[in-house]
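Quick check before the chapter quiz. The format below is the same one you will see on the exam, so make sure you can read both the input and the output lines.
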Amino acid sequence: MAFRKRLSCLITKGEGSLMKIVAIIPARAGSKGIPNKNIRIIGGHPLIYYSIKNALESEYITDVIVSTDSQEVKVIAEQMGAKVKWRNAALCGDAVTLDAVIADAVPEGCWDYIVTMQPTSPTLCVSTLDAAIKYTIDNELDTVISAINKPHLSWGLKDGKKVPNYVERLNRQYLPACYMETGAFVVSRASIVTPQTRIGEKIDIYEVPEAEAQDVDNFEDLRNVAATLECEKVAIYVNGNNKRGIGHIYRALEIADEFYVKPDIYYDINQTDVRVFGSTTHKLIPVDGIAELFEKCKEINYTIFINDILTTSIDYMIGLKSVLPHAKIINFEDDGEGIIKADLVFNALFHDNEFSQVHAGEKYYISGKTFMFYNPIEIKEEVKRVFISFGGADPQNYSDRLLSMICKPEYKNYKFVVVLGRAKSNVEVLMNYNKYSNIEVLYDVANMPEIMTSCDIGITSRGRTGYELAILGIPSISMAQNQREEKHGFVCNENGFTYIGLNPADEIIESNLKMYLRMTKKSRQKFQSMLLSHDLRGGRKRVMNLIHSL
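Here is the expected output.
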């Protein structure tokens, strides 16, 4: 396997000639801690593969030499396109310094820089390596050593006693910098490299990300590195707004929490206001249309790509697969033609299961984590409190219509809790209804199940909130926000809701509200039993098991 050098990016000297930069990778056969360490298969490749690959793909390194006494390493290096310097036995002992090994491996000629690269740092990225080389040259340094900034509260010995190395106990983020060498690379000006040293007078460190600082020294390190190299690279593309709702946003954030990596979450700035994501610390990446999304994805070899964008087209899915040919593509709540190109489709809101890769129905609903810690409500003798919420957006303005009803004197003996979502318009106007003693209007609440379980009945639309009310066994009236919601299967009469259609007349809404306010305990218990007959709490596990099985 050969790697092509991008010559246009190579650094030139002042007179215009190319700098000569050689990478030396020392890889002897005699590792005692982990036998055959350098050729152990991790992430589908021998350990040494990763350092050789980085050196060959570097935009600045012009020659790559592996110093070894191992026939297996020699074969791997040569097959990848690197040169090999056979190391004699005198340089293979435990007491031999790495300085002598590096000096021995440097071929004759006029070199500008020598980069020592350890084969035990497989998580290092070539972009980090190149940035360090450029940093060395730009700052005219003799030596740059890879390091990680890991501040910590440490102790030392003084006069035979253990004493703290700090003056004041502080949280880690406020501690002074503490740089630890990683061993991944040492960039040295060639003129200072001797059998005794690779360290010059002008020396600095180059900070590498923590994920790239792993060094394989023992079997525990080997397991940790293997987990890193074999872990998924996950991206999520999601959009939500005041027309389509923001249930997609909530679901995407819940899914993101299920991976042992931090997914990249993309959103279209033309469709989604970043504020609908709330205060999440997940990595949010704005894109200006599909073309920019695809361009960004080309740069990263994602293993899993998740769409939560309503309907996908064939063209979109073909384009996505062309830029991510090795990724598994998973779509949520997708009733478009693009589903035939997906590896998995989860449609908890729909029941159509025409294709084998489509998993439909409420059993694949992903509940918010906090709902798992609340039991279903106890059905009381009389209805006293009513929960009202129409999701994150409420494009039909059902909240407005309900508030105009319940402020009438005939409802003064009931308590109404109205929750408005992040994408709801005219929130300021609706908050004025708090002047009524029987009405409490809340915006973007933190603990939704707490509020829900304080109520006896609910009024909602056919999206995410309906499922949440069902989990808690709260008898509810529901109505659709749009024609798409009319196709949602779970929130219906057969499952314990009273569904009154799309944009029902005020008279219909109010008559059903009055019916629920007068409903007997026995009738509400019957509705609750129907709601709780569905396993909505196990959807998260079902979904993730299927994703991980791909």
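If your answer matched, good. The radius of gyration is 31 Å.
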